[in-house]
Amino acid sequence: ERLAGRLGTGDCVGLVGELGAGKTVLIRGIARGLGVADERVICSPTYVLVHEYAGRVPVFHVDLYRLTAAAEAGDLGLDEMLATGVVLIEWADRAEGVLPRPRWRMDIVPVGPTARAFALRRVG
């Protein structure tokens, strides 16, 4: 939720971590901080690729897990999403070369059964 306070229209956060690392859980917290009223509706858009949620700005939740080539991410309309809201991307490492710059990158590393280490950095 604290990260959400630094985000606004045009911001992109790419999340990187292994399966089960907590990417979707983190996105729920960010979305709550961006004013999404019911974070329980937030689930990973693995098969549809993008979900949009209403908050103080639109929140676009993108999942690149099923992409077979990085170039496919360019067909999702990320520029249009960024023009109106915040874009949160799971599996961002699958399309590093085509993602918008500048953006935030959050690496999530499990350090125990229920503990995670987070590293946030600016890219571009």
Kindly describe this structure:
There is one protein chain. By secondary structure, the chain is an alpha/beta fold. The chain has a single domain (3-123), classed as 3-Layer(aba) Sandwich (Rossmann fold). The chain has helices spanning 23-33, 78-84, and strands at 12-16, 50-53, 59-63, 86-90, 103-110, 116-123. Strands 2-3-4-1-5-6 form a 6-stranded mixed β-sheet. The longest helix has 11 residues, at 23-33. It is globular, with a radius of gyration of 13 Å. Pfam families: TsaE (PF02367).
Separation of the first and last Cα atoms:
24 Å
**Overall 3D form:** globular
H/I helix tally: 2
Helices and strands, in order, run as EHEEHEEE
- Largest beta sheet, briefly? 6 strands, mixed
Architecture per CATH nomenclature, i.e. the level-2 architecture: 3-Layer(aba) Sandwich
- What is the top-level CATH class? Alpha Beta
Overall pLDDT, averaged?
A: 92
Order of the strands making up the biggest sheet: 2-3-4-1-5-6
Structure in a nutshell:
This is tRNA threonylcarbamoyladenosine biosynthesis protein TsaE. This protein is an alpha/beta fold.
Features:
single chain, 2 helices, Rossmann fold, alpha/beta, 15% helix, six-stranded mixed β-sheet, 124 residues
Question: How are the SSEs placed, and which strands pair?
Answer:
Blueprint: E1 12-16, H1 23-33, E2 50-53, E3 59-63, H2 78-84, E4 86-90, E5 103-110, E6 116-123
Parallel strand pairs: 1-4, 1-5, 3-4
Antiparallel strand pairs: 2-3, 5-6
